[in-house]
Fold:
Amino acid sequence: MSLLSVENALQIFKDNVKPTTAIKRVPASDSLGYVLAEDVCSTLNVPPEDCSAMDGYALCTDDLIDGQKTTLKISQRVMAGHEAQSFERGTAVRIFTGGQIPVGTNAVVMQEDCEVDGDSVVLPASINPGNNVRPQGQDIKVDDVVLVKGQKLFPQHIGQLASVGIAEVAIYRPLRVAALSTGDELVDPGSPLANGQIYNSNRFIMAGMIERLGFEFIDGGIVPDDFDITKDKLSEAAQNADVVITSGGVSVGDADYVKPAVDELGHLDLWSLAMKPGKPVAFGHINDTPFFGLPGNPVSVFVGFLVLIKPYLQATQGMPWKEPRRWKLPINFERKRSGIRQEYIRVSLVQGDDGEQRLESFSTQDSGVLRSTVYSDALAIVPPNTTVKQGDLLDCILLDELLNN
Ligand code: AMP
Ligand code: MG
Structure:
């Protein structure tokens, strides 16, 4: 059977993005982690006027003696937040960081370079116009676009909004993402395990990803391997959520009911992806609700969610389409036999004796071993049909980045 490449699968997802339109206005102070739904322009200059970047003395460079130290009388003090008096030519102004530069002065000398002599100050030679002056609008100018629509709001963005006096912003209502875990063998922690049962880890991986990325998690629970129940649960989830995700039951085994259930409710494409872990992946729609089916192995859920579903969800949430950033680093392992699937190897960043970072493969790469995600820092990507040896450079994606932006 021919395999669909990760690249082609992502292109299909990208082509299917229908960005959300549901918007609400919230206080900017409550907007952390949400996605901005409008461009924000400034009505102000930041800083509002020329101001000092240092504690020191403001002066007019035309009052200085060329190439020599100059002594000037100190005529006033300007503290941040207080208006400057009119400037008397031929004097210096004691000024503090953030203080308004009096009209007529054009430079500030830091106090460490000056000597105070009674009510005068001795200034060093060679002071240039503009020295230590933060010009009006250095950060933001009137009418500048401060932030663009689609920006996810981190602390620095909210700080920038505050700097131009914005107290309220329009954000996209967080997507509601339902996650269902299929499998007769599953039990949620808190109940004892009977023979043959295992605890449901995928629910917690999916819920955590959904919440971590700022979406609303809708718990679709555990779905037994039964066609009618699978259909009912999927139908219910699709009514309550903007996107539905399942784990397990998308292979072509006897107990895999996700494909036939979605086929009856809407439309589903099931592919063998050229991806390891995470071969069987499904995508389709239940009524109009987009649907993703991930395989059941927990590492496949972890990798599949971050690599395949996260870009789709974020674009649907109104952010620009963005695939994970790749870093090139030398590896400490080898792959002597090439595979036809693109492999995402769980690796740690280890600093060698030479101070350089290297990628070290976790000992077990079985997609059932969730520990490989717990003790790793990154996913190293071995492209299809490629062998690699120690010291080769491989692209990797950092888990910190995957889960934090
Ligand atoms: P499936 O894709 O349904 O054939 O499942 C593949 C493997 O993943 C099987 O060993 C399942 O028991 C396991 N598995 C499926 N769902 C979960 C889950 N929610 N938590 C932990 N393991 C799971
Ligand atoms: Mg199953």
Observations:
- Helices lie at 6-15, 155-163, 202-212, 227-240, 258-265, 298-316, 371-374, 399-404.
